[in-house]
Amino acid sequence: MKNSIYRTGVCLVLALFLQSLAAFGQMPGTGVTSAMVKLFGDNAFTAQAEVRVMNSNHVVWLQMPSAFASADMKLRLDVDVKLIKSASIPAAMIGMAQQAGKDRVTSVIRPDKKATYIIYPNAKSYSTMPLSGTDAEIASQKLEKKELGKETIDKHPCVKNLATVKTARGAVLLQATTWNATDMNGFPIQIEMKENGFSTIMHFMNVNLVKPDPRLFDIPAGYADENAAAKKTAPASNNTPAGKKK
Question: Between 135 and which of 34, 57, 187, 202 could a Cys-Cys bridge form, CB atoms 3.0 to 4.6 Å apart?
């Protein structure tokens, strides 16, 4: 069964941001997949990226500058909510994120921990979302590439590929068009994904093929666990059997 890159029509990259907004009830919850890590091959890196999401009419629905880092099958995405351009996201929502200290969002996919960390540097807090069994089994996932042609992106000679990530049993997890730069160890300098009428293009810049500091993929010391705080404030359930008095 295909593990969709979108849930309720929202693209993978935006899903991380929307998940943070869902924490205070402004958007429905969305999910992410670790399969995207496979598109980068064996490359450990840091990079900036310009992410554009277009609707079925090829109109830009969202534009989002971001920063990526990856190593050892872990993936980090940093977004400054204030820099997102989209007529579909109300300014009031951005304002709420800023007031809550959640205008900067760091998302870290950790298949080794079977979790995704959503970190808010300005609020010095974080929350944890579990990865599904399929998402956590990244080591067994397989990347298949079919060459579509050769193109040049930002003066880098690239092989344009149809990239497909599958489970060990052959189920498709992710499919994307990638432009793999031959002078950058096959790094996908551009990735395009299409689903549910949306097209998402990630254009990478300032790529540094050096293994990033491992601490980038950890929760910073001293940050408050929002999951634990939510459990403390949740009303206690009444487990008293019917017909019995306390």
Answer: 34
